[in-house]
UniProtKB/TrEMBL annotation:
EC number: 1.5.1.2
Pathway(s) served: Amino-acid biosynthesis; L-proline biosynthesis; L-proline from L-glutamate 5-semialdehyde: step 1/1
Protein name in UniProt: Pyrroline-5-carboxylate reductase
GO biological process: L-proline biosynthetic process
MF GO annotations: pyrroline-5-carboxylate reductase activity
Gene, per the UniProt record: proC
Enzyme kind, highest EC tier: oxidoreductase
Residues in coiled coil: none
Amino acid sequence: MLQEKRIGFIGAGAMSEAIIAGLLQTKQVEPKQIFLTNRSDEQRLQDLINQYGLSAKATEIKQIASADIVVLATKPKDVPEAMRYWSKKLCSGQLLISIAAGIEIAYLESFLSTEVAIVRAMPNTSSAVGYSATAMCHGRFASKQDVECALQIFRSIGAVWTVDESLMDAVTGLSGSGPAYIYYVVEALEAAGIQAGLEKQVARELTLQTFFGAAQMLMQSGKEASQLRQEVTSPNGTTMAGLAELNRHETQKVFQQAVLKATERSAEMGKELNKVGT
Ligand SMILES: NC(=O)C1=CN([C@@H]2O[C@H](COP(=O)(O)OP(=O)(O)OC[C@H]3O[C@@H](n4cnc5c(N)ncnc54)[C@H](OP(=O)(O)O)[C@@H]3O)[C@@H](O)[C@H]2O)C=CC1
Ligand SMILES: O=C(O)[C@@H]1CCC=N1
């Protein structure tokens, strides 16, 4: 299905790159099917075109405006400006996929005078290696084929779930921002390993393999995280000592609060922009 589609990206930032890298790595699309534009950073655009072998024509506005699928990947604050410009160029028959945090479908529709199919999605940066956790919902003009097309894009760069739009802020707080929480923990474990006497590279490799192994256990064993944690924890042993310190600082609660804060921020960003209006 994606083989015949032309995909235009509005925004040439971290997320567009992650999705493009994933699509190309998993061979779902060829470089010539991808068109890309940004606002002003010519060097960044050229770097991506060179790195991923995209056609130089990729920057042509006409190509994006007539693409089968247009991915809106600017920062949320830049969505009004981008939509004011691009909404005049989009037409029914095209599928607009927005990945902007907090931005509601109704808000995007308010810029459009034609019945453009819209999918709102929240992938994460693991798209770049084919392991995104993406959730998506769709607007009233999206057909079954449009939804299937979006599902196929996000399946090709990881796993995808469909949710009600009211849950998109929660998804953003959990899995959209989620990789950053994991990297934050990895930074801490690596630093602790070094402090305890390990060489930097060894600390890094042990940490990464521990994360990878734990993720595999969670996915393959069918056991709850709490049960797996208990299996590591010998009475009066090392893990118990480590976990006692985490509990003393209410670390689980802190992580829960972090996800809820991020969820709130996603909703807030949408509200801030809706106030701006068209
Ligand atoms: N980073 C993440 O982990 C995730 C981000 N998201 C969402 O993805 C979106 C993009 O994020 P990210 O890639 O990190 O952002 P970046 O800041 O890395 O990239 C934003 C891009 O948008 C371009 N841009 C800004 N205004 C316009 C415009 N009017 N027309 C065309 N292009 C424009 C910028 O161009 P220039 O540099 O020339 O100004 C830049 O290339 C955000 O809405 C974010 O909420 C979703 C999931 C995860
Ligand atoms: O930090 C942000 O706002 C974006 C949305 C999800 C991940 N990064």
